Amino acid sequence: MRLRNVLIVVKDMERSIKFYHDLFGLDTVVDQDGNVILTEGLVLQDEKLWKKFLGREVIPENNSCELYFEEREFDCFVEKLERLYPEVQYVNRPMTHSWGQRVVRFYDPDGNLIEVGTPI
After folding, report:
1. DSSP 21
2. pTM of the model
3. Which Pfam families does the record match to this protein (predicted)?
């Protein structure tokens, strides 16, 4: 058995595709009826489909999981984030952990938690 993808729920598919492309360089691999697979295995699913399949409401900003990315050019990434998405909601502004890793945490437009850190 192997883990194939990680799926997150989004309200506006085009906005989310643009967000993940702009910030992380992820491109669309497959686009099929409310499910879009991006490079690196991230799947975006339309919120209407998710609600239909689960029969439950989506809870944005639930802080129960995060997408984690590593970036060697950390300062350049933070500048790009602030330039392209000045309205982004931060959980932690850029900071340095006690072990020396620099990180930033924020929500995507749908309240999915993202962490970007320097390589460990």
Report:
1. H
2. 0.95
3. Glyoxalase_2
